[in-house]
Amino acid sequence: MSVAVETSGRAATRTLNVRRPLVAPEMDRRRLLQAMRRWLVRRTFALGLVLVALAMGMVWVRLQVTEIGYQLSAARQMQDRLEQQRRELEIELATLRDRSHLAELAAKRLGMRDPDKGQVVELR
């Protein structure tokens, strides 16, 4: 196929030879359409994989948040129990340090009594 082209500055015409037709044959259109479909299927599949991965990541994060919530709740319950025990032990310690209670225990369990005059020696 040859095409005549006229240039603006010259009066001479040139002939261009085209080795292939300007319109693609039907077979090339089918191949192009198949290639585009394959590309679209690959892209859709890749996007689907990304979305599934993101969904699984969100589920994993939610499970981790729930697990940490349970651990935090258990830690708070343990803290409350320990604080209650500490208060009870402080009350018991105050009771055991009381002089009247100590004197009563010494008399009952050990048979001790208050010293008589002259039995107490002060050291300086």
Compile the SSE list and pairings.
Layout: E1 2-6, E2 13-17, H1 26-97, H2 99-110
Antiparallel strand pairs: 1-2
Strand order of the largest sheet: 1-2
Distance between the termini: 133 Å
SSE-based structural type = mainly alpha
- Average pLDDT level: 85
Helix content: 55-70%
What's the total helix number? 2
Over the alpha carbons, how many angstroms does the gyration radius reach? 49 Å
Question: How would you sum up the major sheet?
Answer: 2 strands, antiparallel
Query: Quick one: how many beta strands?
Result: 2
Any overview of this molecule?
Helix content is 68%, strand content 8%. The longest helix is centred in the middle third of the chain and has 72 residues, at 26-97. It contains 2 helices and 2 strands. A two-stranded antiparallel ribbon has the order 1-2. The protein has helices at residues 26-97, 99-110; strands spanning 2-6, 13-17. It has a domain at 26-110. A hairpin with a 6-residue loop joins strand 1 and strand 2. The radius of gyration is 49 Å and the shape is rod-shaped. By secondary structure, the chain is mainly alpha-helical.
